Protein: Short-subunit dehydrogenase
Organism: Amycolatopsis echigonensis
Amino acid sequence: MSHTVIMTGATRGLGRVAAERILAGSPQTHLVLLARGGAGAGLAEELSRDGHAVTSIPADLLSLGSVRGAADEVAHRIDGGTLPPLRGLVGNAGLLYTDDVTQSPDGFEATFAVNVLANHALVRRLQDRFEAPSRIVITVSDAHFGDFRHNKGMMPGPSWQDPARMARTSAFPRPESTTAGGIAYATSKLAAVHLVHEYARRLPPGIDVIAYNPGFVPGTGLSREAGAAVRFVMRAVMPLATLTPIASTQQEAGQQLADVVLGRTAAGSGSYVDRTSEARSSAESYDAERERRLWEVAEELTGPFTR
Ligand SMILES: NC(=O)c1ccc[n+]([C@@H]2O[C@H](COP(=O)([O-])OP(=O)(O)OC[C@H]3O[C@@H](n4cnc5c(N)ncnc54)[C@H](OP(=O)(O)O)[C@@H]3O)[C@@H](O)[C@H]2O)c1
């Protein structure tokens, strides 16, 4: 029996590999790519060549209007029977800016808009279309820990603030700096882990939500906003790190993400998967009040959700 899995962030990097592996591991999946520009249509055509069902719906995750439009289109197609029942969402898209002053079209800080608000709008807009058993997988990051063990000194740690403040630009010191961009990224990923806890509490049984951490995966497009020197190091030098345990190749990380999506990696709802197995995230150290407040703000900024 076929079913629908929606995926963001499939056009490049580890998500590109994961899309292929999901289809190879589950030929009954109808994969719906949410992507900006023409990239999704091109990829859908390419992935369909092997006989797989792949559809592309345009969505710029920086714009909540665009995200809502895409979610409504998915819901419309499911209701009309042109897409099979919804059993998965892969929120893999993410970005990292070199500052904390870039604004989304809706006036939010751009990292927070894509890494947090877009996923929230998709989960909530489609909440009652998911059929059990479903898996929602959100790609997070080691960066949310903010310690040397997890980021090897390559990224500043998160700096939690009231979510209404973090959603806007200039929430962190020296907002024009690369460091502030890194803090915004690490904090957005911590927020994503917190929201996974909140989704697990609020979604019906059988609709499981999991945070997936790929670890360090050099060579993807994530550092494309960085200066030329950093881009060179990430492209030409860092891939050597995949010969060591500190980094994974895009092939390895894409397969790991696919394994979580396909249910091959055992993980309960609300859990954090570190590459291949359930682990403890740093979000466990904070109280539920922080997560409730984050939920409230995410609702306020992305809602209302009437369905
Ligand atoms: N690479 C690492 O070391 C690492 C470590 C930890 C976590 N992660 C996380 O892993 C995920 C995948 O990242 P990656 O490293 O594979 O980076 P990537 O190659 O830059 O891929 C990012 C994906 O997100 C999509 N995306 C970004 N902004 C978007 C927008 N406004 N609208 C629609 N799609 C958008 C990109 O689409 P376009 O092609 O249109 O840009 C692309 O498909 C991200 O969530 C990232 O934070 C990566």
